Amino acid sequence: MVPVLGRYAGLLTIGLLGLVVVGPLAVFLPLWSALTLGAVAAGAGGLALGRIATLKARCEKLSGEVDLLSRRLLKIETAAATAQPRPEVAGAAFEGQIAELTVEFGLLSGIVRDLTAVVSTQDSEIAGLKAASETPPESRSAPAAPPAEPDPIAAPPRPRAAPAPQEPSPAPSGPPVAAARPDPAAEPARPIPPRPIPPKPARDPDGEAEIIRAFEGDGLEIHLQPVVTLPQRKVVAYEALARLRIGGVPNAAEPEAFLPVLERYGRTTELDRRMLQRAAVVVRHLARRGSGTTLTYGLSPLSLFEPGLLRELARMVADDPTLAGLMIALPQASWRGLDAGQRGLLAPLRGRIGFSLDRTDDLRFDAAELAALGIGQVKVPARMLLRPGSDRGRLSDIAVEDTAPSLARAGIRLVATDVAEEADVPDLIDLDVPYAQGAAFATPRPVRAEVLADAAGAAPTPPTDLEPERRPFRSVLRRAV
User: Fold this and answer.
1) 178 assigned to some structural domain
2) Are 219 and 249 in contact (CB under 8 A)?
3) Is the N or C terminus of the chain more exposed, i.e. has fewer CB atoms within 10 Å?
C-alpha cells in the first residue's frame, strides 16, 4: 500500500489542493471556479498529449528494432539453408569417392598384371622359337625326346568349377618344342596373386558355337543339391549349380564341359549374373514358405574383377531383405588374394547375405581371419578330410578331427562335400563334421518350372554406368591370352 501511495503521492496532493481551493470557490464564486476547472483540465490534457507522443515515439523505435531483428534472422536462415553440407555429410561423400577410386585402382592393377603375364609368356615363346630356329639340323634331330612328352594343350586339367590358382600361368600357344623349354625368368614372384587367366581348351569351333548358342538361348538351368546335417540327415541348405542343356542331349552338361568355353569368350560374368537372378527367385520362394534353409552359389573368380556385378548384387540385396538367405561362395585362393578394391566391393554385402569358402586347396584355415572376412561356411571335399595324404603343404597344424570344432568356435560351419559313398558317412561323423553334401544323400535336381515363373519380373537390369567402358578392353584381353 505504501509503494502505491508513494507512486501516486503527487496526484493525490494536487487533487486535495484542488478540492480545498475549488470547493469554496464553487460555492462563493461559481464563474471563477468554472474557469479554474477549465484551466486545470487544459493542463491535464496537455500533459496527457505529451505523454502520448512520448509513448508513440518509443513504440515506433521498438517496432523498428524488431523489424531489424526479423530481417537479420531471415538472412541467417537463408544463409544456413544455402550453406555447404555438414562436415559428417561431406566426410561420407568423400569416403564414397575414395572407395570408388580404390575399386578403379584395383581393376587397373588387375589389367596391368594380366598384361605383364601375357607379355612375359609371349617373350618366352619367342625366345624358344629363336633357340629352335638357331639350332643346327644335326643337333635338332638328336634331342627328339622332349616333343614326345604329353601336350599340355591337348589335355589340360579341368577343375570342377572355375579354379583360381595361386600363380596361374597361361598355356603356351606355340608348338610342343617351345612348351618343353620353359624359361625360369618368365615366371617372376608376385607378392599379390594376379587375376586368374582362363585356360585354353582344345579348339572345337563347332562345339564351341553350339555351347554359345545354348547359353544365349534357353539352355541354362539351375539345379539344387541339398546340404544335410549329420547324423540326422535333415536338409538345412541348398547349393545352386549351373547346368547347360546343349543340343538334343537328354542330360544337361556340367560346368566342366562348358565353363572353359564361356571363360574363353568372356561370358562368365553373364553366367554369374543370370544364375544369381535365378538363385534370388529360389530364395524368395523359400522365404515365402517360411523355410529357414539357405542357398549357396559359387561365383567365378573372374567375377571379382567385375565391379558392376558386385555393385548390382549389393543394390539387389539392399532393396530386398528377403535375400538374407542367399550365400555367395568363392574359392580359397580368391579369399586369400583379395586386394583393397575387392574388399571394398564385398564390404556392402556383409551382414546382408552370407559368405562361403569352397574349392579348398589345403586345410590351413585361420578361423579368426575367416570370421573377420565375414565367412560363415567352409566347404571341404570329404576325401581331403578322410584321406589327407602325406603332403605337408596341404595339412593343417591341428589334427583333422579338430578342424570342425575350431571353426565352430569362430561361428563357421564345416560342410563336407562330394560324399559319394555311404561308407564315408560314419567316418565323417567320427570327425565331428556337422554337415555334408554329395551323391550319397541326394543328387542335384532341377528347380521346378513354377518356382521360376516370376524370374523375368524379378530379374534386375544390368548397370549401364561402368560396364560399357571396360567390357570391350577386357574381352580383347581375354581373347589375346
Assistant:
1) no
2) no
3) N
- The answer to which of 108-122, 134-148, 358-372 has the lowest mean pLDDT is 134-148
**Sequence-separated (6 or more) residues with CB below 8 Å from residue 481:** 114, 117, 118, 121, 170, 197, 198
Judge whether 5 lies within some domain. no
Tens-digit pLDDT profile for residues 171-207: 433 433 333 344 444 444 444 455 555 555 556 777 8
Count of Cβ atoms closer than 10 Å to residue 127 Cβ: 15
pTM above 0.85, yes or no: no
Q: Is the dihedral of CA 332, 334, 340, 341 positive or negative?
A: negative
User: Does 401 lie in the same domain as 253?
Assistant: yes
Query: Residue 333: which of 132, 194, 220, 223 has the closest Cα?
Result: 194
**CA 69 to CA 23: how far, in whole Å?**
55
Span 338-345, average pLDDT: 89
Is 117 among the domain residues? yes
* Same-domain pairing of 110 and 226: no
- Domain hosting 211: range is 205-480
- 10 Å Cβ neighbour count for 419? 24
Whether residues 354 and 460 fall in one domain: yes
- Is 52 a domain residue? yes
